[in-house]
Amino acid sequence: MPKNTALILSWPYFNFLLHDRPDNTRHLNSRETEILLSRTLPANSQGQKTADYITGTGTYPGIVREYTHRGHFIELIEERFFLQCGADLYKKYDLFDMQFTARIPPALIDKLEAEGKQIIGWASPQLAGKAAQADLLTHHPRTARFLPEQIVLSGFAQLQTHKDSKTFPEIDAEYLIAKPLYSSRSRMPDGSDYRVFPKSAWPQFLELALKHPAWFAHDNGLLVSELVETRDPFLKNNNAVLHKVHLPAGLPDELWRQWPLQCRKFSARIELDRIGRDIRHLGDLLQPESWEPGLLEDYREDLHALTRALPPRPCLYSADLMIRPNGRLVFLEFNKLAGTFLEKIYGDQCPLGLYMEKLTQIGLI
Question: What is the pLDDT of residue 201?
């Protein structure tokens, strides 16, 4: 039986798709969505990625066609409008796809599910923060071991407390890295790079952080952790090899165990000998070398445990991981949307396409 499906898009995605429509457009019905698929969208790096997700590439049909090929009547709704429109609109749909959203509150999800609606692609807005993700793994019996040693600095008062105590964080590492709780592209909220410094420079870092109120604006804060190092023998023993792997939540165990664990490896070197006693920008020390294909099959049970720690609703995540010289896996963060979702990592198939296939197998779409 055909389903009425609403694809909810956060404002940047929706806005790009409607570049030549009135500014007050916030909702496209199924006919307008069909017309959208036939249009040529303007080319630019950010916009093209949006178009690839929604309307497709040469090798991936796009999420709208994924649904229409399965007999769905699909409409596009901008996220903020969706939050305002209320029950009269909600009752129209059988399924809500929220993979491209960021701010849908849990209370609304509970209400929709109580009314028998299907929800895929949703994660709590709080889960976007690195501290919330760490807290989630800390309280799961099988995943705390994947976390690096780290502390959270949630505001100026906490900074001042650390400064007044004149104690150092209980992190057994020579070098530390400071990241915001909410970030993208390895940037601080003011647009500068993450900071890297020797543990001995902790007092100086606290002084620096107190001079940057923008780092704590809008409920942001800092996560200070050990600087995890790698020694990948196949990549020149580089000390900063990051693995990006795709983890689908909400699948039955038997389907999850069939999920391929090919990944993308970002190989780089952090020139630690240039830090000295200073606080440095990560970008000044990082020497990127290559993106390489990888395989994490040897870590399947670990990755299954990570996925089981996530909320059980169907949602596709990308996980950033590193592997210590002793072979231990280290978790850095989850992302609900990633550029690698569209790369042909699994032979001729991309992660987003395979995820849609799995949802079809369990009867969700």
Answer: 97
What is the three-state SS of 16-29?
HHCCCCCCCCCEEC
Q: What is the DSSP string of 62-93?
A: -HHHHHHTTT-EEEEEEHHHHHHH-HHHHTT-
Largest distance between two CA atoms of the chain: 66
- Tell me how far apart the alpha carbons of residues 255 and 229 are, in angstroms, rounded to a whole number: 33
Per-residue pLDDT of 37-53, as tens digits, reads 777 665 554 556 667 88
Which residue positions in the chain have pLDDT lower than 70?
1-2, 19-23, 40-50
**Domains plus CATH for the chain?**
4-122 (no CATH), 149-226 (3.30.1490), 230-361 (3.30.470)
DSSP string, 296-321: -GGGHHHHHHHHHHS-SS-EEEEEEE
Phi, psi of 32 (to 5 degrees): -65, -35
